[in-house]
Amino acid sequence: MSTRTTCPYCGVGCGVVATVAENGVSVAGDSAHPANYGRLCVKGAALGETTGLAGRLLAPQVDDQTVSWQTALDTAGERLNAIISEFGPQAVAFYASGQLLTEDYYAANKLMKGFIGAANIDTNSRLCMSSAVTGYKRAFGADVVPCSYEDIEKSDLLVLVGSNAAWTHPVLYQRIVQAKHDNPALKVVVIDPRVTATCAIADLHLPLAPGSDTALFVGLLNMIAAGTGSLVDFEEGDAALAAAHEWPPEVVATFCALPRDVVTTFYDWFITAPRAMTLFTMGINQSSSGSDKCNAIINVHLASGKFARPGCGPFSLTGQPNAMGGREVGGLATQLAAHMNFEAADLARVARFWGTERLAQTPGLMAVDLFAAIGRGEVKAVWIMGTNPAVSLPDSHAVCAALAACPLVIVSEVVADTDTSRYAHIRFPALAWGEKNGTVTNSERRISRQRAFLPPPGEAKADWWIIAQIAQRLGFGPAFAWQHPHEIFSEHAALSGFENNGMRAFDISELARLTLEEWDRLEPHQWSVTPEALRRGWRSSGHLRTVPVSPVRAMAQPTTLYPLLLNSGRIRDQWHTMTRTGTVARLMQHIAEPVVEISPADAARFSLCEGDLVHISSPRGVMVARARIHHGQREGELFTPMHWNHCFARQGKVNVLVAPVCDPHSGQPESKQTAVRIAAW
Ligand code: SF4
């Protein structure tokens, strides 16, 4: 039997057809899904090999003892109640994941913000795209991505910045390759310090100095103004434009460590292209100035008019399958459900809709601050759902120490043994991909169904069910009396339209009326952002605007003791902390162990040969990796994957090195730059 569902890995959001047979699950691309039209990358194609039960958490546990659901839920409820009674709601936090389905996310957000009464629910999406959220909100007044995949074929110039899409968004990359094949006039610019696989299709590669992207785009804004004399969407005395005047190409070239003619070629191409898109992701977002980088990109699209029309726009590529769904339901500590904000009218509206008098009135702790508060003993209970912060957060030694000292750690997990679940007092077994049922939203705002095609294994339960059971034990049962995820989706969709009257950009309330059968059959549905809404509605309400930004260097700079800059990121065949993809033999064949890419000059400087085991050290820790000499690596810089956990390489965790330095607006950590030193093992 075959089931149409959605890949649980990256934000491309490919449709897949899963077929269950006697010898296991096979997976093929869904030719009818508009995100991929049948294409799959190697991770998606291997999904069937991840559906076995080896290593699964299949029963609840309390204090390392297997117990019944009744005991686990009662114990969690009693311990949470005790902490809330003694220390108040701010002593409790949830840390969720872009792996959750929208319905799970909605339930968690409603319980924490609406009924426990604190906004301490943040998510691993904070590490992924929160700078893009801030950038869009500062420019448009709303967290809205104004692009679609179909814009790619309509564009004349695609600018990929901070994105190795060939490895991290492979099906989207394949679509770009096809578009370029079909239209040889389509130009592709890749802006990345490294020569990556994505550079294979680049007509122009700008290997700029790490973190200098803001200067590059501020300089482009300056050239747009100089070239046209009449700017779109700019007002007299625009502060962004005034700041840009200080960035002529020669200044940009020096700041970015690029040849001047490379900079001016990029500027010429952007200005003369009738239609241009900028696709950006972690290389932009994961920065201590990530929000400003996003706004520098958005500014040039607003100024040049390459915006809100086909083939144009600033397009944030989300990393996770449901980072966008999380944004829609308010799964960040800094926003309310349905893209609403911590503002009086929104607070009152959400409180009325949920029928609560306990709604949190102020934003909660963002991811890095949240774990720091656990470390200080201010947060005394944390419930971690579907994510592995002991590997993925910066300063992971400190994160582990915080979890070890926390009085109550609850983990909802699919996998029995993760770096994080080792610290858990209570473990809830959650349903995995193929077993759970709900919706996800991809990078282009397209809501797709993830459908169950396997029976629940062991005692595993849906995340929303677990959350609703805890809500009952905290005394909030009537507001969480759902029997099916369809009811949660309907409530979420209804909230998006509640007292909206067209005033808010996110409104999917027409989906609130779907029957269970209609919801079950729901075809991929892209919620609309009309050019009219972007051009008239928001601008007339004073929202659409450029944001003045000033280029700055990254916090981390080389020193005598730590003379190299370490970049971290994804590799082609692994996902996040490898708890799923690390179990698939053929995915491990691509890169089987932690590696560090180093330029030939630096290899000679530090007396390293290809294949040497090396120590990489920062003031915070040490990791071990195998040296790979890479001609595409800039001198003075290293690159290492972010994936390895304790099961696969105990000393391969890059985040033991990374400082918890964050963008002041978005709270997103600077995962792309750490000052380190390297030495042979
Ligand atoms: Fe899955 Fe992303 Fe690969 Fe598509 S591109 S199959 S969503 S990992």
From TrEMBL:
Keyword set, alphabetical order: 4Fe-4S, Iron, Iron-sulfur, Metal-binding, Molybdenum, Nitrate assimilation, Oxidoreductase
Domain 4Fe-4S Mo/W bis-MGD-type: 1-55
Keyword Kinase applies: no
Cofactor: Mo-bis(molybdopterin guanine dinucleotide); [4Fe-4S] cluster
The family this protein is said to belong to: Belongs to the prokaryotic molybdopterin-containing oxidoreductase family. NasA/NapA/NarB subfamily.
Domain of life per record: Bacteria
Boundaries of the shown chain within the full protein: 1 to 681 of 877
Keyword Iron-sulfur recorded: yes
Name the UniProt record assigns to this protein: Nitrate reductase
